[in-house]
């Protein structure tokens, strides 16, 4: 694997870091208020929607850190599947947040950081593809 600053592994770490910022934006500005499931939790669940949403996001970011540490490294079995999971997820995240905000005509929490996820996911795909092809 390349040790260049644009290596796929480093881009993966950047993507997980951006997801952490994205999760903070979503939580701080109340994305859970736009999601019916979390409204239900707010009414009937053991915790409020804020706490439940924060825990879900913390677990998700923790999963990203685990992927980076345990799976997205040279020679790790299935590394490509983990990279592609995150590329697809963050590409969708990067497209759907702004689209949702635009169609709703309001700011949907997560929209500010979403384009950074999209661009980084696309760069990660490019870097991973080049590294797999031996181009770097």
Explained architecture:
It is globular, with a radius of gyration of 16 Å. It contains 5 helices and no strands. The mean pLDDT is 90. It is 73% helix and 0% strand. The longest helix is centred in the C-terminal third of the chain and has 26 residues, at 79-104. By secondary structure, the protein is mostly helical.
C-alpha termini separation: 8 Å
Distinct helical segment count: 5
Estimate what percentage of residues fall within beta strands.
under 5%
What's the mean pLDDT score? 90
List the helices and strands and how they pair.
Layout: H1 8-28, H2 36-44, H3 49-71, H4 79-104, H5 114-133
Helix pairs in contact: 1-3, 1-5, 2-3, 4-5
Describe what is shown at a glance:
This protein is an all-alpha fold and 136 residues long.
Short key terms for the protein model shown above:
136 residues, mainly alpha, globular
């Amino acid at each position: 694997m390349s040790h260049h600053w644009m290596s796929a592994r480093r881009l993966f770490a950047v993507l997980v870091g951006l997801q952490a910022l994205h999760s903070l934006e979503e939580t701080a500005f109340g994305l859970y208020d736009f999601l019916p499931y979390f409204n239900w939790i707010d009414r009937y669940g053991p915790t409020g929607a804020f706490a439940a949403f924060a825990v879900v996001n913390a677990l998700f970011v923790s999963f990203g850190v685990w992927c980076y540490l345990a799976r997205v490294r040279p020679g790790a079995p299935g590394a490509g599947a983990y990279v592609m999971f995150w590329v697809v997820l963050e590409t969708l995240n990067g497209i759907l947040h702004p689209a949702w905000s635009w169609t709703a005509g309001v700011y949907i929490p997560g929209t500010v950081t979403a384009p950074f996820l999209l661009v980084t996911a696309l760069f990660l795909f490019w870097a991973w593809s080049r590294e797999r092809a031996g181009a770097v």
